[in-house]
Design a protein that fits this description.
By secondary structure, the protein is mostly loops. The protein has one domain. It has one helix and two strands, in the order E-E-H. It has one helix spanning about 30, and strands at about 10-15, 15-20. A two-stranded antiparallel ribbon has the order 1-2. A hairpin with a 2-residue loop joins strand 1 and strand 2. The radius of gyration is 12 Å and the shape is globular. The two termini are about 25 Å apart. About 20% of the residues are buried.
């Protein structure tokens, strides 16, 4: 089990929406934690992950130490 990084980010607006991606849904790579949003992502308007008050409990207080989840694309 994992919690999505978006769920403990101050920019998350609920469901699949975020201040970083105001004109479309949050990309599935970010939602699925395959891309840790501590660095720029195309069309993120310069907004990256910032922890909210629950981030420490779920291990996202230091986003730089979070490892991305593997995707089916990572297996040959």
């Amino acid at each position: 089990m994992y919690i999505r990084q978006c769920g403990v980010c101050i920019h998350h607006l609920g469901s699949n929406s975020c201040k970083a991606f105001p004109n479309h849904n949050i990309p599935s790579d970010i939602l699925g934690n395959h891309f840790i949003h501590n660095k720029p992502y195309p069309d993120d308007n310069g907004i990256q992950f910032e922890p909210d008050e629950d981030a420490e409990f779920f291990g996202y207080d230091d986003i730089n130490s979070v490892k991305p989840r593997l995707s089916y694309k990572d297996f040959d």
